[in-house]
Automatic annotation (TrEMBL):
Record field: transmembrane: none
UniProtKB keywords: Leucine-rich repeat, Repeat
Ranges where the Disease resistance R13L4/SHOC-2-like LRR domain occurs: 68-200
Keyword Repeat in record: yes
UniProt KW Repeat keyword: yes
Highest taxon, organism lineage: Eukaryota
GO cellular component assignments: cytoplasm
The protein's name in its UniProt record: LRC18 protein
Amino acid sequence: KGKAKGQKGTKITLKIAKNSIRISFDGGRRLDLSKMGITTFPNCILKLADVDELDLSRNMLKKIPSSIQKFQKLRWLDLHSNQLEELPEAIGTLQNLFYLNICNNKLTTKNLPEELNLLKNLRILNLGLNCLDSIPTSLGALNELKELGLFDNALTTIPNSVKKLPKLKKLNAKRNPFTDSTEQEEYADSIKRVDKLYLVEEKDLCSSCLKTCQYERDKLNKLKDITSSPSRKLSFPLLLTPNSSAKDNQEWRLK
């Protein structure tokens, strides 16, 4: 009986939603419905479509409806750690969006809408931990993009249109089956302005994750010390991604 209730998911009422609105650091209104056991998109929140930020992360959502287009003021959308298999084409209408996190879902390249390339103001896009076997060349239209997460997918290559985005400063493509073992380093070297992408701050990690990351960082630092070739540089030595063991107060924000 309890199991059936869990499958049904938490029912979000308009009252619950209103009580979940917070003021963000820059004064915007943020609707935080993360970690609430939601299985279906709560239509009642369409009455709160004037919020600036929407956090539906760490739930059990499988689908985002086309009605997401009603959130025209939205600047920040966090959908990470759900069970999304597709995104609606209507997401391309959110022209004010500068942050989109759809990491740790079940998205495939086929179900990644081409309309993502319409998000002309997007600064941060996280597509890590999905089931992508390729990246649409059309994402090369995101000329304002500064940070891109592609880690833990099934990519064999990254299109030049994406690698050469004019403002891209942080690219994380770790743990993809690139056809050439040198390609991953090549992709990293193509963006010489940065060599690390930290997606979660250390203070937001549980002690176990932090120890693991510190151990890996120490190993890489020792390797750097003994390497004889100064021209060879390890890119992205530390990768922190969202997972169930991260602390509840973890926030994915543009600092």
